[in-house]
Every structure is written in C-alpha cells, then in structure tokens.
Design goal:
The complex is a heterodimer of chains A (90) and B (989). The longest helix of chain A has 9 residues. Chain A is built from two helices and six strands. In chain A, strands 3-4-5-6 form a four-stranded antiparallel sheet. A two-stranded antiparallel sheet of chain A has the order 1-2. Chain A has 90 residues and is α+β, with helices and mostly antiparallel strands. In chain A, strand 4 and strand 5 form a beta hairpin. Chain B folds into seven domains: 157 residues, Ubiquitin-like (UB roll), CATH 3.10.20; 201 residues, FAD/NAD(P)-binding domain (3-Layer(bba) Sandwich); 116 residues, FAD/NAD(P)-binding domain (3-Layer(bba) Sandwich), CATH 3.50.50.60; 65 residues, Orthogonal Bundle (Arc Repressor Mutant, subunit A); 148 residues, Gyrase A, domain 2 (2-Layer Sandwich); 89 residues, Alpha-Beta Plaits (2-Layer Sandwich); 99 residues, Elongation Factor Tu (Ef-tu), domain 3, CATH 2.40.30.110. Chain B is built from 20 helices and 53 strands. In chain B, the strands form 14 sheets. In chain B, strands 9, 10, 13, 14, 15, 16, 30 and 31 form an eight-stranded mixed sheet that branches. A six-stranded mixed sheet of chain B has the order 44-45-46-43-37-47. The model of chain B has no long low-confidence stretch (mean pLDDT 95). At the A-B interface, helix 1 and helix 2 of A face helix 17 of B.
Chain lengths: 90, 989
C-alpha cells in the first residue's frame, strides 16, 4: 500500500508522489554499434537484490533520481539525484 | 432466555440505558455495551444463520475474530452489512438486523440445506453443478449466490465522508493490553513520539476482563490510571477504535480508525473513518493471542462460546452466559473463567479438562466438579444449548447446561509480522505457530511472543520498548508496575485436534461452514496441501480470514496426513487483518474529488458562445458551437468547417502543452530531443518537430518557436503534455546534465487561441499593433507582439493545423477571455465563428495532418511520410539509433494514406479494416485500418486517414473498408492523405 522514498531534495516522501521509469542504465555513446543500442533499449537484467532504477519525483521537486532498491525486499539502499550519478561516473 | 445481565459488575454505565432494535424487536442495553453484549444481556443468544447450512448461530467471541454474529447495522445509505456484533458499540437508536435468513431468524427456510448436507460437502460445487455448462451462469450460480450469503450492501449513496492521513512516530505500539500499555508508558515517559493503536473502543485489551490486581489495584483501574498518564503526555497519541491492518515497505503501517461508527448521527464535518499510514521508526507488536476453539459436535450451537469471550462478557459487560455453565478446556486458562463465574454467582455445572492430570497445583480452588481426561464430544440443542455429552474413557455422560465455554489453547496473533513474506514455524513447546521476536522495524512482545501471564507481559512490554528506544538514542527506563496478584498463568498445553466420540457436525470454520469431515475429504481426494485444502474446503476464506479456524484445520490436516503441523505449514498472510471499508480506502477521492475538472482560461468564453463540451482527460474541451435551428452536431460542425474555409474561426487551443526552454544549450538540447534539425532555427521562427522514443517510434509532435537566441517555446499535444515534460526533464537531468538548459511548464500561464481562415489576418490586425502582413510576418513566423495599442503583450505564431491562413495567439491566461471576446467582436463583420475540436478534426483530416490517432505507438517517421524529418546530419538524437533496424525499414510496413468511398453517399468508420478488393475478411488479408475519419464538406463525402501496408505507393487502388463489428462493407479508393490544397497555396498568402 505505501512505502517511502527518501528524496535527496525533499526528504522522506510517499511513493505515490514518484513515477518509476525502469533500470538506470547509462545511455550508450552516439557512435556505439547497433548491438549495444539494442541491448540498451530492449534487454534488461532481472536481478534478485540491489537494482538501480530511475524514479521521477513527479509530484514533488520534479527531479529524476537513481533509487537503489532491493527487488526482493523493496528496501531502498540509496537515493541520489540522477545528475549527480553522471558526475560521479565521469 | 438464558443469558442475562448481572446485578453488578462490568465497565458498563448502568445509569445510561440505550434502546435499540434487533430485527425490529426493541431492546435495552447500556452505555459501554457492544451489540453482542447487549443482545446477550437481553437473552438473545440466536444472532445469525450460518453461510451454507443456515444453522442457528450465537456469538462466539468478544472481538474481531467473530465468525457468527455478523449483522447489518444502520439504515439507508449508512447500512453496513457483515458488521461483527462484538466490535460494534451500542448507541441510542441503533438498528441491527440479522442476515442470511428468510423469512425470519427464528424460522429460516434455508436451514433445509442441513438436510442436504451429504451433498454439500467440500468441493460440492465442483462435482454437483458440472453440466450442462449453460446452466452454470443462468441457474446454478444465481441459486448458490442467493442461498449462501452474507449481508447485502445498500444501493443508496453513503452520506458520510472519509479521509486519509499520515503519521510519523518513533514507536508504534499495536495493542493496548498489559504489554502494549507497559511499552507505551515506558516510551511515553522517555519523551519518544508514541502512537498506541487498539482495535477496540476501550484501551486496555485483556486487562479490561481481568480480575487480577496490578500494584494493588484492579486491572481496569490500572488501565484507567495508565490512560490518564498517557493522555497527559503530548508526545503520545492514543488511537482507540483503530485497527492496524497491514505492514508495508518502509515500515509503514496501515490502520483504519472508526471515528464515528459508534454514533447514530455522525457529525458532518468529521469523517466517519480515517485511514492512517503510520511511518514508525520502530514498532512493537503487542497483539496478544487468539483463543482456539475446540472441534466437537455441535460446537456452533448458540450458547457455546470461547472461554476468554465468556470472561469478557462477564467481567467487562456484567453479562452472565447462562444459568448453568460448563467449561471445556485443554489448559489452565479455563480455570480463570471458572473462578470468575463462581465469584459472580453463576452456577458452574462442570469443568471438563482434556488433560489426565488436570490443572496445575494451586490454580483452582473452587467447588465445581472437575472431570479430567475427558472431552465434550457433542453439544446438543437447536437455537440454544440444552446439554452436552462428556466423553471419558469410552463412556459418555450427558450434562444439562445452557452455556459452554471452550478453550483449545492460544494462537499468537502474528498476522502483521508475517505480511511481508515471513513464514511462521510450529512450536511443539508452545503448541502454536510462532515467529521470532525480532525483525527489522518490528518487534514482538507479550503473549504474541508466547510470554504468559500479566507480570511477564508487563515486564516484556516495558523492557522491549526501552531497548528499542535505546537503539533510537533515547535514554529510556523500563517502567515497573508493582506486583501482580491473583493472575492465573496458563502454561502452554498440548493441542487437541481430534476429539473422540463425536456424533454431530464439528465445525472448524464457522463462517464458511467447514466441518471436520471436509478436511478428511480434502485429504482423501488429493487436496491435502494446506493451500489446496483451503481452496477446496473454503476453510479460512471467509471475511474472518480463518482467525479461529486456520490452525485447527492445519492440526487436523497434520493428523490426517500423519505429519506435524509444522510440516503442513500455514497459508500466506496478507493484508488486511480485518476488512476495511471501500470508503476508507477511497478517502476523499470520490464524486467530484475523484477526478478534478480542468478548465481552460477560455472556458467561460466557450460557454458564452454556447459550446458543447467533451471530456478529454481532465480537460473540458469545446466540441462544437450549435446555433439556433441546428438539429444535429454534424450541422454545426459542417457549418463551422465551411465558414473557416471561407471566412474565419476562433478555436481554444489552450490545452496544448506549453514548455518554455531556456539556457545557452537550449538549441542543442531541442536538437537532441527532436528527430529533425533545430540548431539553426532562426529567432522569430516556428518549426514543426517530431519527437521519438529511444526505440525509434514517434512519441509526440508539436511546434517549437525560437523567441530569443536562448529562449524557446515548445508546444506538445494535449494528451502528452505531462509525459513530454517528464521526458524532457529526464533528458536534461539524467541523460545530459552537462547541458545548460532550464525547463518550465507554462501550459496554465497562457491562453492560446487559433484564428484560422482567409480573413484571420484582417481580424487579428485590428488588435495587433505590429504589421502582420505576409511580407512582415510570413508563414512560420513567431514573435512577441503588442496588443491593443500597447496595453498587452502576447505571442503570435503563424502556424496552421487547418491548412488555411492561420495564427495562434497566446496571451496571459487571465486576459484570455477578453482577448477572445475582442477578436469575436472585431471578426463579426468578417463572419468569424467559434469552432470546436470536432471542426478542428475535420480541417486537419482534410489537410492530412496527423494526431495521436496516427501517432499511436506503432509508427516510425517514414510510415507517416516524415522520412525527411529524420536528420541524417545529426550525430545523435533520441531514437536515432534504433531507426536503422530491419523491421522499421520493411517495405511492407503500414504507411499513411487517404481513403474515400467510391460512392460519396456511403460512409465508413474509424477502426474499420482495409481489404484488397474482392478479398475475404480474414486476418491474413488485412491490409491496415482507418485511423481517423470524418465527413468532409470540402470533398463532399466521408474521408479517412489510414495506415495501410505500402500505402504510399497504392494511391488510386480500389479497396474494401470492412467493419466486422457492424458488418459494414464500403468500397473505397486509397489516395493522397492531403485532400485539401496539396500545394499549400492557401497557407502562405
């Protein structure tokens, strides 16, 4: 019924305020080959355990977040702004 | 009349009598009564009829597990069926009705089902009603539904309102018995934010029926002083009448508070129920244990009751169960009842103890006859208990009694702890299914954790609360409450599943009428697995969800299969613990509040002009503007369309999504989200843009205008306004955070109107200060303009959806209505008309423009003839990389094409399929389908846009348009999708 996501900007908020998009995958480089793009667009892992997902705080600050969620327990291990992830990766 | 009110005792207010009716019969109860206790006090043992066999039933429990005494409470829109009588507080004027009986509770035709019981065993509907199949829907199902039933809901509207809210706390305590109170006091005194919930009207749980002394005072007095202290603490919230029904992710607990279900006329400004979502840093489950019934023949006859319930009615409500009482117990707890009955002067016929050794030494010092090593094998009577058979050592003795208490041991109420996947294990030592005390966020204490006795429960509640708060950083001291005197501490006893010597029907699941033999049948027929047995017998599937029956069924399954109850295992625990009303779950989201109405800033203008509105999403859009004498919508729409092609029209397009995009990288950003080029769009120009999904399919379209070097104004379709905004935010934040871009949704800030038709410029020029001649402001111009001699700034776009010379004018929302009025006034002499989305649709179909009818998630740019809008020069844009996939370049793909009937007098509808001329209507022959259609005044017949295999190269081909639902066949011809002005001559004048 209800669970909470701790938005780095708004604090702990009910999940009804958020929209989940799916796996938080890095977008391939523009010149990546077709197989890489196909994998990016269509193929998904289905792990039991921690999984990075994009969540949008649609009814809040409207920031896109990367939520690290345990697919088995729904425990949320970490939440960060999606833009920060990009910086961290670089 | 057997049960009756004692002259003294109980927590009821004897000075406040309350009158109520049961099946129309007027009765008197007392303030503090439940409906069940009031009925018992009036000698009304018979409270309902059972589900399948229509057997007479009385109240079995004093709590939320009640399977028998289910009633319809209230009248009119406040009628609430299946209310558990022990949970319903009595109020003055309460109207209660029994259920599942006809014509009356006393004389019920349905009880004939008992005679048919050999045919109504477990799974009977799978066997009996197998054929003919056609009979099922018409005969069998209606018959079964009528015969087997619960109460009926009212068709009237619920006049009350409900609300939902959130609460946060350090410690949530579920249950307010000895354990819960000790925990709440410990936590409250430490300054922690505490919420204490209890499903009953009164805080106190089992203490309210207790005769022991705590710290020298009677248990109910101990409760009163604890309550006074808790109420004085600002950090403690007490929620009585509140059931914690679910444990969810993030340690969120769902609870429903029955705020005004105990009053006849609820205050209109206060909800009747409130749904709580409680976020608890830690929670303590102090839900206690549920007493287990014993499975003997006739264990459902009115007068048979759980021992703990009988003790509640006696001590809490001052109601005696009968004149001559027997107690059948497997453990020492039955002796606490014996002691209290004797003290109250109620005659005790016998105590039947299944244990050969009887009670532990010192437990019982009363005078009643105690028969050890014995069982009650059968209870006898019709609508009231008359006698019992006591079976001992192969011999049966009959005792005359009018009330029988039973105690088969205790099941810890671990429901909440198991709702997130945890499975309980069987403990032989405790004779019960148990779970460990600790788990993340939720701890068990008291008898739910198999702690027995008041002193131990008080200590456990205080200690566990102190430990949990210590972890949260509070300096909490476990409170102590003095010595406990006079408590009988029942040691766990060996469960008794099968009782010897049974003659009659021995019920396991009272509410679903599942009896002992059904379990055996399920095992014999191969449904012995606990989940299969549940569904085959329906044990545990009633609204009580097997609170009393599940463990007994598991015990009997275990015996029948020759394994331990642990090996049988339990069924899955799921929310809700008890039924929750739809009203509480809906909260305020009903009626007008279910879906808000979204009105355009031009709504009032449209209304003044006589618009017919249509709901599109939340929006109310004007569809057409009928004039005097017009009898059908088509007359109005045709008139509007013709007038726009000759004169001019004004249409509200404020619903289009509008997004302002600014920043030094705004152009680069837009270039990446559209498939066509935008980097070099000049300032002051608008361009049609195509937005793809990453998989290459078209997502949305719209125009984007460059107002300044680093300021763009994007429009989206009405339906995808929110989606495009989310998508663009994703692109700026997650994909390319390095770009300097800012987005603002300005949909609500602008009133936007389309002014279309040959005379649109003439009309607009009367209010626009700047020169908007074709030379000064050519097709696809976009700029800020001054209006009414500098009184107002607006934005003017020379774009056209209709194919006519046309503009869109945006003005600040608040000015929308007066600007539209001014344009209508100025346009009067030029024949301007208001037009709606129907005419808009006709104009765009005539011009071959697409909407989401065509952009339906299956098309790529090439399918719509937009191949040139896919930039080959751009290194990257969303959707680019998938477009080269083989399937998206298949020459057989469906492509946009126009369709017109061969005979203009014939017509076709959207959704109809296209077949080759002469081909049969089969899936293999399907060529495509009509995506949009309308009557075109310009063409003089129905026209359509269609997505047809290789459509672009099939112009001129004769086809058959087939509507299989209405069996319509229309010969037609495929053609260019642009029916009107293909050379765009009217557009650019």
């Amino acid at each position: 019924m209800a669970s909470l996501i701790s938005c780095p900007h708004c604090g702990s908020r009910p999940k009804e305020e958020f929209t989940v998009k799916g796996a938080a995958l890095a977008r391939p480089e523009a010149d990546a080959d077709e197989a890489t793009w196909f994998d990016h667009v269509y193929l998904r892992d289905n792990p039991r355990g921690l999984y990075d997902e994009y969540w949008h705080h649609t009814s809040g600050c409207r920031r896109w977040l990367v939520v690290t969620r345990d697919t088995a327990t729904h425990d949320i291990a970490a939440v960060r702004d999606a833009a920060d992830k990009k910086e961290a990766a670089q | 009349m057997t049960s009756y009110r004692l002259p003294k005792g109980g927590l009821v207010d004897r000075k406040t009598p309350l009158s109520f009716t049961f099946d129309g019969k007027r009765m008197i109860g007392l303030e503090g009564d439940s409906v069940a206790s009031a009925l018992l006090a009036n000698g009304q043992l018979l409270m309902g009829r059972s589900f399948k066999y229509h057997r007479p039933r009385g109240v079995l429990t004093a709590g939320s597990a009640e399977p028998n005494a289910l009633m319809t409470i209230g009248e009119g829109g406040r009628t609430e069926p299946n209310t558990r009588a022990p949970m319903q507080e009595l109020y003055q004027g309460l109207v209660a009705r029994s259920q599942n009986r006809w014509p009356s509770l006393d004389f019920d035709i349905g009880s004939l089902n008992s005679l048919l019981s050999p045919f109504l065993g477990a799974g009977f509907y799978y066997k009996t009603f197998m054929w003919p199949a056609a009979f099922w829907e018409k005969l069998y199902e209606p018959f079964i539904r009528r015969a087997a039933g619960l109460g009926k809901a009212s068709y009237e509207t619920d006049p009350d309102h409900y609300e939902k809210c959130w609460a946060h706390c350090d410690l949530l305590v579920v249950g307010s018995g000895a354990t819960g109170l000790a925990a709440a006091l410990t936590a409250g005194r430490a300054g922690a934010r505490v919420i204490l919930v209890d499903e009953h009207a009164r805080i106190g749980g089992g203490l309210l029926a207790e005769t022991a002394l705590i710290g020298g005072v009677a248990a109910p007095d101990f409760v009163a002083s604890a309550l006074a202290e808790l109420a004085s603490l600002p950090n403690v919230e007490l929620l009585s009448r509140t059931t914690a029904f679910g444990w969810y992710d993030g340690n969120v607990f769902g609870a429903v508070e029955r705020v005004q279900k105990h009053v006849r006329a609820p205050l209109p400004n206060v909800p009747v129920e409130r749904l709580w979502r409680i976020v608890a840093k830690q929670a303590l489950l102090a839900t206690g244990a549920e007493e287990r019934p014993l499975t003997f023949g006739g264990n459902d006859i009115p007068g048979v009751m759980m021992a703990g319930a009988m003790r509640s009615y006696l001590n809490t409500y001052g109601v005696a169960p009968g004149k001559s009482v027997a107690i059948f117990t497997t453990n020492d707890s039955g002796y606490a009842l014996a002691r209290d009955l004797e003290k109250a002067g109620v005659a005790l016929a016998a105590i039947i103890d299944s244990r050969a050794e009887g009670a532990a030494p010192g437990v019982y010092s009363g005078t009643a006859r105690v028969i050890t090593g014995a069982y009650v094998s059968d209870a006898h009577g019709g609508k009231a208990l008359a006698s019992i058979s006591v079976f001992k050592g192969g011999k049966t003795e009959t005792l005359s009694v009018d009330a029988l208490a039973m105690s088969g041991g205790f099941n810890p109420i671990i429901h909440l702890a198991c709702q997130r996947g945890e499975r309980p294990t069987w403990s032989d030592e405790n004779g019960a299914f148990i779970v460990p005390d600790q788990r993340k966020g939720l701890t068990l204490a008291g008898s739910v954790a198999t702690t027995n006795g008041l002193a131990a429960c008080l200590e456990a509640g205080a200690a566990k609360a102190a430990a949990l708060l210590g972890d949260l950083g509070f300096a909490a001291q476990a409170s102590s409450f003095g010595t406990v005197e006079g408590d009988i501490v029942p040691a766990a006893a060996k469960p008794v599943w099968s009782i010897p010597g049974i003659k009659g029907k021995a019920f396991i699941d009272y509410q679903n009428d599942v009896h002992r033999k059904d379990i055996g049948l399920a095992v014999r027929e191969g449904y012995g697995h606990v989940e299969l047995a549940k569904r085959y017998t329906t044990n545990g599937m009633a609204t009580d969800q097997g609170k009393l029956s599940n463990v007994n069924a598991i015990g009997l399954l275990a015996e029948a299969r020759g394994i331990s109850p642990g090996a049988v295992g339990t069924t899955t625990f799921r929310p809700f613990y008890t039924p929750v009303s739809f009203g509480a779950l809906a909260g305020t989201s009903h009626g007008k509040h279910f879906q808000p109405v979204r009105q355009s800033p031009l709504h009032n203008w449209a209304k003044k002009n006589g618009a017919q509105f249509v709901e599109t999403g939340l929006w109310y859009r004007s569809s057409w503007f009928p004039r005097a004498g017009e009898k059908t919508w088509r007359e109005s729409v045709d008139r509007e369309v013709k007038n726009i092609r000759i004169n001019a029209g004004l249409c509200d397009v404020s619903m289009l999504g509008k997004i302002e995009i600014t920043g030094t990288d705004a152009a680069e950003f837009i270039n990446r989200v559209y498939s066509n080029a935008f980097l070099k769009l000049p300032v002051g120009k608008a361009r049609y843009g195509l937005m793809l999904r990453e998989d290459g399919f078209i997502y949305d379209d719209g125009t984007t205008s460059r107002l300044e070097e680093n300021r763009f104004f994007m429009t989206t379709t009405t339906a995808y306004a929110a989606g495009v905004m989310n998508h663009l935010e994703f692109c700026t934040q997650a994909l390319w955070p390095e770009l300097d871009v800012r987005l603002a949704s300005v949909t609500d800030q602008w009133a936007q109107m389309a002014i279309a038709g040959p005379k649109s410029r003439l009309i607009l020029q009367t209010i626009v200060d700047e020169d908007i001649s074709n030379d000064a402001f050519p097709f696809l111009g976009a700029k800020e303009v001054s209006l009414f001699g500098g009184q107002l700034q607006g934005r003017l776009f020379r774009i056209s959806f209709s194919g006519e010379l046309a503009y869109e004018l945006a003005v600040p929302a608040g000015y929308g209505e007066s600007v539209a009025d001014a344009l209508m006034e100025a346009g009067k002499e030029h024949g301007i008309c208001a037009y709606g989305v129907e005419a808009l649709g006709v104009l765009r179909i005539e011009k071959g423009h697409v909407t989401h009818n065509e952009i339906n998630g299956t098309v790529v740019p090439g399918d719509l003839g937009f191949g040139k809008m896919v930039s080959a020069a751009k290194a990257d844009f969303v959707g680019k990389h998938m477009l080269s996939r083989e399937g998206l370049n298949d020459p057989n793909r469906a492509q946009l094409v126009g369709v017109a009937p061969l005979d203009p007098a014939t017509t076709f509808r959207s959704g109809s399929h296209i077949l080759e001329k002469g081909a049969a209507a089969t899936l293999e022959n399907d060529q495509g389908y009509i995506s949009s259609s309308c009557y075109s005044p310009h063409v003089g017949s129905t026209i359509g846009l269609a997505l047809v295999k290789r459509g672009a190269s099939r112009h001129g081909e004769e086809v058959l348009v087939w509507n299989g639902i209405r069996n319509e066949y229309t010969p037609a011809r495929l053609c260019d999708p642009v029916f009107f002005d293909p050379a765009n001559e009217k557009l650019k004048v």
